[in-house]
Amino acid sequence: MKTVETNPNPLGPIKAVRSRDLLADALREQILSGARPSGVALPSERELTEETGLSRAAVRDALRVLESEGLIETRQGRYGGSVVKLPANDALARPVALFARARGISLQEMIEARVAIEPTIAELAALRRTPEDLQALIQATDLLQEALPRVEQFLDLNVRWYFALADACHNDLLRAFIVSIAGLILAATSREGQTPEPTRRLILQSHRRVVDAVIAGDAPAARRRMERHVAGYQEHYERLGLTPSA
């Protein structure tokens, strides 16, 4: 008797794609490809319903998906509707913060990320900075000087100094990384007594050395000085017992 072999490669269940996802995919591709630039209004829900043949509910759900992704914003009122917008510089910050909290990312891991990123940002800033970038970076450094006696203000302005440096490197992805981890670093290190005034003065001195290299257009020096700065930062928190010793 002839036996019938069973299929060794079963397909498994096939999940149907929802119509709202198809519309969201199509609109997302148009936005990301530049076919629908930032600031341009999308067709109204009624128009999209007529164009696609989808239900009003499916169209509304698709627009909600794009809004949750930060690709459109919905405006109310007589001239309201959905308008295309590019992701903001801090678009990575919230998901990275949630990831860090959920995974229990340590201060040591945050510092390791800084070691990997910040010297490259300083190096690129020295190569790519514009006169406007230098003005912003010098101003950020001067504000740090003024805030030396006030620890909370100093730490907040210290984060803004990094933003100014990241702006000068003209790499949007690196800037997004800095913005996404800056809040984590600030939250992890802003407890009372962790950054006394002598430490703040050392931070300011390190920043000025980096700025001098960026102004001079000396990329290797900017990288070296930032590497030393981050190494000093790590040593400081090792002494406080907040990170393990190497």
TrEMBL record:
<dbReference type="Pfam" id="PF07729">
    <property type="entry name" value="FCD"/>
</dbReference>
<dbReference type="InterPro" id="IPR008920">
    <property type="entry name" value="TF_FadR/GntR_C"/>
</dbReference>
<dbReference type="InterPro" id="IPR036388">
    <property type="entry name" value="WH-like_DNA-bd_sf"/>
</dbReference>
<dbReference type="InterPro" id="IPR000524">
    <property type="entry name" value="Tscrpt_reg_HTH_GntR"/>
</dbReference>
<protein>
    <submittedName>
        <fullName>Putative GntR-family transcriptional regulator</fullName>
    </submittedName>
</protein>
<dbReference type="GO" id="GO:0003677">
    <property type="term" value="F:DNA binding"/>
</dbReference>
<feature type="domain" description="HTH gntR-type">
    <location>
        <begin position="17"/>
        <end position="87"/>
    </location>
</feature>
<keyword id="KW-0804">Transcription</keyword>
<dbReference type="GO" id="GO:0003700">
    <property type="term" value="F:DNA-binding transcription factor activity"/>
</dbReference>
<keyword id="KW-0805">Transcription regulation</keyword>
<keyword id="KW-0238">DNA-binding</keyword>
<dbReference type="InterPro" id="IPR011711">
    <property type="entry name" value="GntR_C"/>
</dbReference>
<dbReference type="Pfam" id="PF00392">
    <property type="entry name" value="GntR"/>
</dbReference>
<dbReference type="InterPro" id="IPR036390">
    <property type="entry name" value="WH_DNA-bd_sf"/>
</dbReference>
